[in-house]
Amino acid sequence: MFLARVVGTVWSSVKWQGLHGLRLLLVRPYHLDDLLEITGGKKNPDTEPLRIHDGVVVADVLGAGPGEDVVIAYGHAARVAVEPDLEPMEKPHFPIDAAVVAIVDRFVVYGFAVGEPDGKEGHNRG
Known about the structure:
Number of helices: 2
Helix content: 10-25%
CATH architecture: Beta Barrel
Order of helices and strands: EEHEEHEEE
């Protein structure tokens, strides 16, 4: 899993039939230096940014929106988020590789907190 920021919504008028009705988002994975910068920490001058992806398209089953921080699951865990009854070795019905599995209210990096400690910005989504 990884922490990311929702940066947009993806629309497609032509797609695989199983994806109809499934909301797709564009997220930008956080790099550790991004998190340190947000929290006021100092970047490590000896590390170069190592970005695997500038953006990842993910399935959204929780109703996340632009600007929110989310936890993304990959692979089988993502498919289970979309198909909760999927067994470990069962063939999935959806071609999903990444999905939102949590909307983050708060996180702490090296002792620096980001978000509301008491969930005031909490998400009433079930």
